[in-house]
Amino acid sequence: MKILFKLCTAALVSVAIAGTAQAQDKRIALVVKALGIGFFEAAAKGGEEAAAEIGGVEVIYTGPTDTTAEGQIEVINSLIAQKVDAIAVSANDQDALVPTLKKAMQRGIKVISWDSGVAPDGRMLHLNPSSNALIGNMIIKLAADHLPDGGDVAVLSASATATNQNIWIEEMGKVQDQYKGINVVATVYGDDLADKSYREAEGLMKTHADLKAIIAPSTVAIVAASQAVSDAGKTGEINVTGLGLPSEMAGHIESGASKSFAIWNPIDLGYSAVMLANSLIDGAEAGPGAELDMGRMGTLTLDDNSEGAMSDPFVYDESNIDDFKDIF
Amino acid sequence: MIKRLLTSRELILAVAILALIALIALKFPAFIETSNLLDAFNDTSPLIILALGQMVVILTRCIDLSVAANLALTGMIVAMINTQFPAVPVPLLIIVAIIAGSLMGALNGLLTWKLDIPPIVVTLGTMTIFRGLVFVLSEGQWINAHEMSASFKAFPRNEFLNLPVLSWFAIIIALLVIVMVSRTSLGRAFYAVGGNPNAAVYAGIDVGRTQFLAFTISGALAGLTGYLWVSRYAVAYVDIAGGFELDVVAACVIGGISIAGGVGTVAGAFLGAIFLGVIKNALPVIGISPFAQLAISGAAIIIAVAFNASYRNTKGRLILKHDEAVNG
């Protein structure tokens, strides 16, 4: 009887302890551009994973119902009222959120932005999914990985004046020498139009008889080039790769026109955002040159704007495409 | 007779196309291989179909700038039907596309006819409305290759007598339009309305109604092209065929269809489209800088128009003046 009583008390005490622990949980809000978007649902999954790994962290996944800055301001105001410990936001507007987020920081809430950034005044750090250098390296690596003996590759970009693509292609050029035997024979432009990209891909196949891969760092071009390669009956001979979205590329991975492609992984991004927010709550200092822990994603090094790049773009191929094609 | 044939615009255009092909072959000999020329023709087929519809509209002194947006909207509609109800057979989808396209064309026609708004204003407006509707309908999402059924994608690629179905559509529609403009009273009415609207009224032709029918035909062909386009490139999104209406008008102008109405032939529109198609297919293989490509396309159009303008002076038979000259 006594033993039973002791057991009961122990149980009660442990419940009470668990209860107080609950109250002291760190609460990290993951604010997204809008609810119901596959990409952000996946990021929330990553956030939960980080919370489980850290322990004692509650992730509040929230956002407006449509992608407006006003909606996000309302959500953030209510989070301030709830006295959360940290806010990690993917912003609908770079500047509009700054005053509200400043208010949050004045109340001692740690604020970071991820995916889509906030101006430096309105956050302590910004987490980029990747960096131009990492993307430039990745697109040529994707082609090289399937060409152990080397070969001719060509780049099919968006328009000749597209800033992002030009930077990535330039970064690719810097690391090209590290991939022995890979010759970049041409760079052509599809203007982000499906029909023009398709024609340019056909042109590449006709003018370069030994072409082994087409690198398309544009979501329109990679889809159009994959279709052109399938239609020309060169599946398996020419590999289309570059940057694409799993939902748009699933059919072309299945057909074999594209062996692999890359883009950020939203799960990793949500995971890293929660990890970083947790580090800040635990007292880590954000600022130029700071190095912060991101758990399994390694460390984030901040530049002069307090921005950092998470990792290489994530590679999608037939082994994982089915897990992601319904997400984004 | 021989002199008229030799100086006919169509013949000169045909010679210009052959000269152009010969010129391209000097730089890239594989261009004149039969398979390549057939590929180029297949690639130009959507432009031919749209140019034939546009020709009918321009003959009646109107212009249809909404064709590309009509194409995008119909393409999205059939793609969405296909993903929701994969069992719906392709011929039925083609009928749906033609009906949807005709309705959009009829809307242009009604606004021009009943409200007497200038066609360029009407179709500029509907162009934006149709694009907007694609966005509303799709919520900005893409419909991708793996979501479309295999038969949906295969239809325009199926070969019949060594020519893809897409090419056959262009040929058959060209023949139908020849019959319509030369063997039906409606076809004659198009020329009458554009040539001299006042005289057409005296001849008992309803100008507004004729223009309405011209817009409906153009819309129907744009709708049909919507299906062919989406299935060929295996992707449907808001911006497909962006700016393509200008290519369509350019093809007509190059083909000698007078913007002032009343002058033009099916052969002209057909060859005008081929001329543009040859340029579009040649530019990727002859290695011209992307910045020069646009200038070259533009220059070709200006030269053709200048050429047509110089032709205008010798146009028509002045019966009365001739009589006066003889009598006087």
Please summarize what this structure is.
The complex is a heterodimer of chains A (328) and B (328). Chain A has helices at residues 2-23, 38-54, 69-81, 98-106, 132-145, 163-175, 194-207, 219-231, 246-255, 266-281, 321-324, and strands at residues 26-31, 57-62, 86-89, 110-114, 125-128, 151-157, 182-189, 211-216, 239-242, 260-263, 291-293, 299-301, 307-309, 314-317.
Strand order, largest beta sheet of chain B: 1-2
Q: Order of strands side by side in the largest beta sheet of chain A?
A: 2-1-3-4-5-13
For the biggest sheet of chain A, the summary is:
6 strands, parallel
Query: Can you tell me the CATH architecture of the largest domain in chain A?
Result: 3-Layer(aba) Sandwich
First-to-last CA distance of chain A: 59 Å
Work out the helicity level of chain A: 40-55%
Uncertain regions spanning at least 5 consecutive residues of chain A: 12-23
Strand content of chain B: under 5%
Rg of chain A, rounded, reads 23 Å
Instruction: Tell me the number of strands of chain A.
Output: 14
Alpha-beta content class of chain B = mainly alpha
Beta-strand content bin of chain A: 15-25%
Which structural class do the helices and strands of chain A define?
alpha/beta
Q: Would you give the CATH topology of the largest domain in chain A?
A: Rossmann fold
Describe the global form of chain A: elongated
Number of strands of chain B: 2
Q: In terms of quaternary structure, what is this?
A: heterodimer
Low-confidence spans of chain B: 323-328
Terminal-residue CA separation of chain B:
28 Å
The H-level CATH homologous superfamily of the largest domain in chain A, spelled out, is Response regulator
Please give the domain count of chain A.
2
